[in-house]
Every structure is written in structure tokens, then in C-alpha cells.
Amino acid sequence: MKPRTVEQVAQVLGGRWLARPADAGAMVSGASIDTRGLAAGDAFFAFRGEHADGRDYLKQAVDLGSPLCVVDQAPHPPCPPGTMLVGDLRAALTALARTERDLRPELRVIGVTGTNGKTTTTRLIEAVLSTELCGRSSPKSFNNELGLPLTLLGARADDEFVVCEMGTSSPGEIGRLTSIARPDVVVITSIGRGHLQGLGSIEGVAQEKSAIIEGLASGGVAIITDDSPPLDAALAIRPPVETQRVGASADARWRLSNVESGAIGVRLHLEGLGNLSLPLPGAHNARNAGIAAAVGARLGLSAESIARGLAGARGPEMRLSVETIGLPEGPVTLINDAYNANPDSMRAALATLATFDPAPGARRVAILGDMLELGEASDTEHAALIESAPSGIDLILALGAAMTRAVGSTPRGEALGDASDEAAQCAASLVRPGDVVLLKASRSMRLERVREAMLTLGARSHAVHSPPRTDGP
Q1: CA-CA distance, 267 to 257, in Å (whole number)?
Q2: How far apart are CA 447 and CA 424, in angstroms?
Q3: Which of 19, 35, 275, 427 is 20 to 30 A removed from 447 (C-alpha atoms)?
Q4: Would the CA dihedral through 282, 283, 284, 288 be positive or negative?
């Protein structure tokens, strides 16, 4: 955020002081909704949630260096200096983000949406651009009507770019987000069967995602996947913009070929930029890499910088993160993709698992939880997923009601019932040494508990088999 005085920020927010600031000339240089990540100079927006009331942390925010605290209900007295009351916290935060965008036309904003690959592509774009430019991307998955304003306000005064992830689960959300960000480059990574409960159909998904171009800045460009007829149809009724397609088709502006995927990552050829490598598994990540490269080229980066950025990129947490975990009888390879799931990302993850080679005599094991927000299509989509699972997968362990129903008649499937802690522990206990194990489910299934159970098993084994200490008590 471009530093502004408390008084200048207060004028944007339009509230009234419950306690005037000790120094109206103090500088505000960012915004936060959580004191655990608050930096000195951040304005603190005290949202009230299901589990916490931000007003309980006003004093802590001030002690950490916040010159301005914003509330929508008066806290218990005394109010710390610099406490302002507004009618709507979300609207106040959005107003501040809009003003920030107005004041910084030189800041290049990249908006990223899509059913799958948003967070990974956001990180890849940041990795590429950071080779020559100063900037940042959405922290974690800050992709909603709180997260996007915080991302914009998190851009520091010397940043040249910011990459904003934009998510949606119901019509109109993308339109609201892009109207705040007003991006110079928009990205649509994919169109798939996600959030069907709110968006209705894949055509509804395409209509919602395509709204990102409505906020495109003058002279901007849309960089999109080339393999989605529903997206093409949705864009046809949007205002015309410059569009660059990325994919394997002959008419793609950035054509992908020679894609090779394995445990150590992906190699690909991108017409116009040459051979590229990415240290993330999954053939589907070739397109994400191509999109990031296209963004880099649009912003004027050299081919050498683009290649270097992709080669050094790191994926986000719990998105095809590969690690070795030591269990009592030996190590296993874990592919942790438990952050979220829909039918298309599930298929991509299963295809990635099939490319890994287990130890001799060991197995490829998919531990799968429910895919949520699919509405009436839930049972059909779960059943189709299991039916189409690659033949190289030896065992599918199902947690959750929908996935349990889907694997019921599958010889290589075993249903573990609900997604409880006990079921997670059971799944961990069924893994053998040398196995390659995939974890994949929607976020609220918390399938990472299987990993935690595996780590616990390994820790117990180490404690049992460690030699006694001989260096004193």
C-alpha cells in the first residue's frame, strides 16, 4: 500500500472516531484482519467471525504498531487511540482497496481465475515476474471479497506488480472482484465442473469466470486456456478484448508440445520460448507453466528470465506437494494434494499418481475424500471419477459419504466411512512401505489428517526403536 496518513485513510473510510488517533499524521502502509500477521503501520479491520471477534484484539493491534483500528460495532471501553466506527467493514476495506488502485496506475495487476490451477498459476506467475521485477502475489488463497482487497493493499510502495487470485462459488463474485482490481492482464486457467451447486452447469462456470475481462484495464490482455468451448461461447458475448490462448491446439498463440511429466517435475516446449522445465509434478501443470510464461512475455521479460523463474518455482502447500514419510516398516512417498478438489482436479491428481513408480512390490494408493459443492451431480460425478481412475492405481481408500458410495462396487476400492480422525488413522495404517500415496479431497474434509496420522506413526516408531541415551539424564 502506498503510505498515507491516518487522516487521509479516515477520509476514504468515511466513519466516525470513537477514539481519535494519538497522531493523525502517522502513516498507514497496509491492512490486516488478523493480528497474527499484522505489521507495524497496518490498519486493523476488526471483523467479527464465528470463532473470534476482532474487537477483542484492538489493544493488541495497537501494541503491534497499528495506527488505525476499524470496527462496525463499538467495542467495550476503553477504545484504544485511533479507533474508527464504520457502517460496513467489508465495504470500508473495499473502498480503501479501490482508492489504492486509483492512486497506483503504474502498478501492473494480474488477475487469475479458473476452476483448477488458480493458486499454482498465481505462484508460477510470481516466480517468473520476480526474476526481473519487484512484486508479490495473493498470500495463501486470498481470492474472495476480503482476500483480494488485502492482496492489493499488501503491495508495497516499491512493488511493480501484484498477482491477484480470484475465486467464486456463485454468480457475480468474479465481476465484483475484477471491478476492484481492474487488472492489466487477466488469466483464465481452466473451465471445469467445480462449484456446480452455485453455478449450475459448466456453461454457468464459464459465464462466471469470463466476467473477469469486464474489469480489464484499457490496453490489457486476456491469457486463457485453449481447450474450452464453453469458455469460447461465454467470451463471445463479452466485450471484445485482445486474447492470447495457451495450449496444444494449432491456433494457440502459445503452443505447448513435447510435454513430459514425472516425479521430479514437468518438461515442455513452448513455441516462441523454447524448452522449459518446472519442478512440479503433473502433466496438467505444463499449461499452468505456459500461462505464466505468457504473462512474463507480455510484461517484457526475456526468455532466459522466464525459463529461470519456472525452473526455480515452488508450488503452494498441499497442491501436489511430494515428500517422503518414514513409517514403522519403511518410507513411503506422499503426494499431498488435499487442499481442495473437484472432478477435473481429481482426475489430474490421479493421472499424476499413475506416473510415479512405487518400490518393487509396493503400490500406488489413492486416499480420496468427498468432492463438495457439486449439487445434484454429486453421486454421478463421484461414480464417474472412480470408474475412470487409471488402471495403474492399485488401491483406492474412500473417506466420506459420497466417495464411500462411489467405491462400493469397485474391486480395488475400500470404503472407510466418514472423514473422522479415526478413519484418517485407519487409512494411514493401511499404507505399506514403498507405496506412493495420494491425498485428495475438498478442503472441509481435512484429509491432511491422514498425513498427520502417518507422521505420528513414524514418530512412535522412532521413539520405540531409538537407542537409549548415554549422555546423562
Answers
A1: 10
A2: 7
A3: 35
A4: positive
d(CA 357, CA 93): 49
Nearest to 113 by CA among 31, 194, 198: 194
- Give the pLDDT band (50/70/90) at residue 193: confident
CA 99 – CA 103 distance, rounded (Å)? 6
CA 165 to chain centre: 7
Confidence of residue 461 (pLDDT cuts 50, 70, 90): low
| Amino acid (one-letter) located at 97 | A
Among residues 296, 102, 301, 304, which one has the least CA distance to residue 187? 296
Backbone φ, ψ for residue 33 (5° rounding): -120, 10
Total number of domains constituting the chain? 3
CA–CA dist 126, 178 (Å, integer)? 19
Whole-model pTM: value is: 0.91
Query: Could you list the residue range(s) of the whole structural domain that residue 294 is in?
Result: 104-311
Residue 381 to residues 52, 283, 344, 349, 406, Cα–Cα distance (Å): 36, 22, 10, 15, 9
Residue at which a domain ends, from 56, 89, 122? 89
